[in-house]
Design goal:
- The longest helix is centred in the first third of the chain and has 33 residues, at 2-34.
- Strand 6, helix 12 (265-275) and strand 7 form a beta-alpha-beta unit.
- It is built from 18 helices and 10 strands.
- The protein is of the alpha/beta class.
- The structure holds 2-acetamido-2-deoxy-beta-D-glucopyranose.
- Residues 249-250, 252, 337, 339 line the site of 2-acetamido-2-deoxy-beta-D-glucopyranose.
Length: 418
């Protein structure tokens, strides 16, 4: 008997439990349909989403170019926040020779990128176990990101082995056909053209550098228009670098123009100040022809598309004109509703005094020109001078780097658009 009652009770209990469960289950399904946020699955998902995924990437960022910018853009896409480690001057000197750009300038440039959330100065050249722990525990990093080019330590081990073992490593594809080595080559070419007769060491360095890399150098004839870049600009890349934001109805639009060749910390600082004077910063980038006409046939070092990408990567920039006119016309001011035209005090020698045309005559007559004291005394020529004065160290560096880059490109295969 006792067992019969017990059986009855347990049967009833089971039935109630089953029906209850079914009702509860159905109500979750129904509720979810009406009110998706209430689904327990989503609540769990939301809680996870609350803590942003933090990704880390490091680098020297010496002579930063749009290839670096693109790598950081790709890294940022693998998480919600990008934290960038910038290697110290000392570690660069030990590993690659003295840097062209001191740490504080490299920090300025990396921090100004639109995809960078935080910057860590004096990051180690190679990630140690201790530093990796620090990244995970103190900086709350979820993943360490690196390009698909191998990073081998002097002892022959993989620099990211530890992160890989911990399952906290993600890789991006190196896509840009440009490298610091290319850019140094272009600068040396420009220096050779001007000084090879009185300074044979540059000429020999140039020959040495270019050997086997680009036959065009040895053609000799084509001269200043020779470019080493493998970079093929696509509309997709420009879109990826662009802002979706458009100027609001009452936005105060500030315009600044220039060559922005070898984009550097001086450019970043003047753009930051210019942006601070309005709500929307429009940057006019002069054509290669305009730059050559004003600075000489050996300039610009970077072509119009390359210069445009570097400027677009800067967080203070809202839009660029790819190939802006030298003179600012009334029509341009009206078309873009420009409220203020600014330019810095630090410019290439004679940039604005070459001929009698004052490019700012129209905006000046409208009283909408403001001259900004350039915060940093750096020009493209400063950068070129730094590199040339360091050329012995660079010669050694280029020999080594050129070889490893050649190997990388030889092994390179199809890469998707990202
Ligand atoms: C043009 O810019 C001014 C600010 O300088 C702003 O008040 C005005 O609304 C803008 N015009 C248009 C059509 O957006």
């Amino acid at each position: 008997m006792g067992s019969g009652v017990g059986l009855e009770t347990s049967r009833r209990f089971l039935a109630t439990w089953l029906i209850g469960g079914l009702v509860a289950g159905l109500s979750v399904v129904a509720l979810t349909a009406v009110w998706p946020e209430l689904s327990p699955l989503n609540i769990v998902g939301k809680r996870k989403k609350k803590r942003p995924i933090r990704v880390y990437m490091d680098g020297c960022f010496d002579m930063m170019h749009y290839g670096h910018c693109n790598a950081l853009r790709q890294a940022r896409a693998l998480g919600d926040q990008l934290i960038v480690g910038v290697v110290s001057d000392d570690e660069i000197t030990i590993n690659k020779g003295p840097p062209v750009t001191p740490l504080h300038e490299r920090m300025l440039m990396v921090s100004a990128l639109k995809w960078v959330d935080e910057v860590i100065p004096d990051a180690p050249y190679a990630i140690t176990e201790e530093f990796m722990r620090k990244l995970f525990d103190e900086y709350n990093i979820d993943y360490i990101i690196h390009g698909d080019d191998p990073c081998i330590l002097p002892d022959g081990t993989d620099a990211y082995a530890l992160a890989k073992k911990a399952g906290r490593y993600k890789q991006i594809k190196r896509t840009e056909g440009v490298s610091s080595t290319d850019i140094v080559g272009r600068m040396l070419l420009c220096v050779r053209e001007r000084t090879s007769s009185e300074n044979p060491s540059h000429a020999s360095l140039q020959r040495q550098f270019s050997h086997g890399h680009n036959q065009k150098y040895d053609d000799g004839g084509s001269g200043s228009r020779t470019r080493v870049s493998h970079f093929l600009p696509t509309s997709r890349r420009i879109v990826q670098f662009s802002n979706e934001k458009v100027a609001g109805p009452n936005a105060r639009i500030v315009y600044i123009d220039g060559a922005f060749d070898l984009f550097h910390a001086g450019h970043v600082e003047i753009l930051r100040l210019a942006r601070g004077l309005g709500d929307f910063l429009l940057v006019g980038i002069h054509t290669d022809q305009t730059v050559s006409a004003n600075r000489g046939a050996h300039r610009p070092i970077m072509n119009l598309h390359e210069r445009s990408l570097s400027v677009l990567a800067c967080q203070y920039v809202d839009e660029v004109i790819i190939g802006a006119p030298w003179e600012i016309s009334k029509d341009m001011i009206t078309t873009f509703n420009i409220s203020l035209v600014v330019h810095g005090t630090v410019a290439e020698d004679g940039d604005y005094e070459k001929d009698n045309r004052d490019p700012y005559a129209v905006p000046k007559s409208m009283d909408i020109v403001k001259v900004l004291e350039s915060p940093l005394d750096i020009t493209t020529s400063t950068i070129i001078k730094r590199i040339v004065s360091n050329h012995e160290a660079y010669q050694k560096r280029n020999e080594r780097k050129g070889e490893s880059e050649r190997k990388y490109y030889e092994g390179k295969s199809y890469i998707s658009g990202d």
